[in-house]
Amino acid sequence: MGNEKQTANGKKILVVDDEPHVIKSLTFVLTKEGYDVSSADNGEDAMTKIRQSKPSLVFLDVMMPKKNGYEVCQEVKKDSGLRDIRVIMLTAKGQEADRQQGLRAGADEFMTKPFSPMGIVDKVKELLG
Fold first, then answer.
1. On the chain, which terminus has fewer CB atoms closer than 10 Å, C or N?
2. Residue 14 and residue 51: Cα distance in Å, rounded?
3. Domain spanning 10-122: which superfamily?
4. How far apart are CA 61 and CA 39, in angstroms?
5. Alpha-helical segments (H) within 33-107
6. Whole-prediction pTM value?
7. pLDDT at residue number 94
8. pLDDT digit string, tens, across residues 38-79
9. What is the distance between the terminal CA atoms of the chain, rounded to a whole angstrom?
10. Which residues contact 48 (CB under 8 A, 6 or more apart)?
11. Positions of E strands within the chain
């Protein structure tokens, strides 16, 4: 075993957001729960990391540089090797149109910022079992 940290069933989570405080808070709460968490701050970097590490779940901000969350989600869900990855879209907006666009892109869930840390943990456990 060495000094490898114990992770929750070895489940990897990628947090993608261009706001450092969102990445920091999600990383903190998910790491505390035992998940292996990594992050990206734009859509292109997100796709590179998704292809490399094939996380179980991706938290995906809608409004980001280089590629928005909808584009990343569609790319993941259209790829047969990646489509099983769960995607939770994060947005600061709560409009129904955003939610519909996220679900059309293939998102498994949609959460509005700000969110409660416990709400995040509950949603992750619900999606990943």
1. N
2. 11
3. Response regulator (3.40.50.2300)
4. 12
5. 43-53, 69-78, 96-104
6. 0.89
7. 63
8. 999 999 999 999 999 999 999 999 988 899 999 999 999 999
9. 25
10. 40
11. 12-16, 36-40, 57-61, 86-91, 109-112
